[in-house]
Amino acid sequence: MRDVVITGLGAVSAAGFGVAALWEAVREGRTCVRPIRLARDVGLSVGIAAQVPEGEPETAITKADLASYDPFSQYAVLAAEEAVAQAGLDGELRGPRTASIIGSGIGGFNTQDDGFYSIYAEKQRRSHPLTVPRSMPSAAASHVSMRHGAQGPTFAVSSACSSGAQAIGVGFDLIRAGVVDRAIVGGSEACITPACMRAWESMRVLSPDASRPFSKGRNGMVLGEGAGVVVLEAAEVAEARGATVLARFLGYGTSSDARDLLRPDPDGSSASMRYALESAGLKPEDIDYVNAHGTGTVLNDTAEAEALHKAFGAHAGKLAVSSTKPVHGHALGASGALELILTVMALRDQCAPPTANFREADPNCALDVVANAPRPMPIRAAMSNSFAFGGINAALVVGVA
Amino acid sequence: MNTSAQSAAPDQDIMTSEFAGRVLDIIAKEGMVDRAKLTPEATLQELEVASIEVVMILNGLEEEFGIYVPVDQTISEVKTVRDLVTAIHGLVQAKGAAAQ
Q1: Which one in A40, A62, A246, B28 has a CA-CA gap of 20 to 30 Å to A394?
Q2: Contact A56, A18 (CB under 8 A)
Q3: How far apart are CA A197 and CA A44, in angstroms?
Q4: What's this model's pTM, rounded to 2 decimal places?
Q5: What is the pLDDT of residues A33-45, one digit of tens each?
Q6: What are the chain B neighbours of A261 within 8 Å (beta carbons)?
Q7: How high is the pLDDT of residue A313?
Q8: Cα radius of gyration (chain A)
Q9: Distances, alpha carbon A324 to alpha carbons A6, A24, A321, B99, in Å
Q10: Which of A292, A365, A369 is nearest to A330 (CA)?
Q11: What confidence score (pLDDT) does residue A55 get?
């Protein structure tokens, strides 16, 4: 099996365009949650979200291309441009030895919401002719593939909130197994639309005020959006071209609860963490920092704390744990990718980012939560967790370069 | 929409109030439970109310009383019918207080 390294990172998030803006906000614990902006008022009870700011930077994306992008594809393409540029790659990505795998929980929901509104409410007779190719969940993966000439395995992974993490994990496995040499992988989501917000409200998991993961008094999550993309390469291939390695990609574990549609099961989520450690060839005590799924719902955080104890045993109490979602929101299919990027930044800066909005420890979440202020500390290896409705769990492990 | 919660007098068991009756109606309808089985100490588990039905019940309560019910510690620790009626009563009263 081949070693895999990370050579490029790219992000679009509520903090703006680029990894630097995101890492700065996360490290400072500066929340990017704002009053929500929507195309149509539907009288929501929840009035906040972590939305991508308006006005994308000037890039090579032409106006013609933009017309064919739903925002979720646009974010993925922008994040991929940044990651590929950082990796210092250009023509090398062309051909069948590069995969393009971008996860999304929902796909082009803005296109669908606007399209349905025009048909049902505005009684338009004609749909936008690009409605289908803009909405398909694999659109982001296809656009990334087209822009970089990647002709290897290209598809979307759709597993709700584990989409981004699983997309990255599959890319890692493909390189490890020798199927491809490089993979442009990540997750993208843009579903803060009137109908989608209404649907999330009905799920009863949204907080009306703030997300406070692992904290006493937490009452739900805040929706986010954006895209995270990383460039993975076989270590030997990256070395041969003299690439700068940002981090080593060590392990991926995934599991399914096979139980309840909504209620998380610590047996299932701890299994994914255990598999990720096995895949990395590491012991629990080799991990110093965990970027938790930590949504801020009562149930997730209690179950995740229990799962960390099950997977890490006596070492669980020694892990520095944080959730960065209070800053960038829960970006669903993009969250696993954005959070892996933040985990890599934590390794590179040797600093565990804080859990913003934290008030007081919850005895049901017996963890060493990095609360409100960043914690400079030695980090040799770190884990990033993602858990999804439907009981799909994924954990990724990265180590210092 | 009547959002009044004053129907439960201070010395009255909340479960005998008109307010509780409205909550029970919604539990029966949205949770698809026999109304006669909704005794105060019956647990949602005994009544076989699954997670998705709890969500339906909370949505029904939101419409009935014009409140938003975030799932905090209080709501997530609800076990019995009485717990749920009490928690919703607290939210309706808090809304009334905020409006004044």
Answers
A1: A246
A2: no
A3: 8
A4: 0.93
A5: 999 999 999 989 9
A6: 51-52
A7: 98
A8: 20
A9: 21, 12, 10, 34
A10: A292
A11: 81
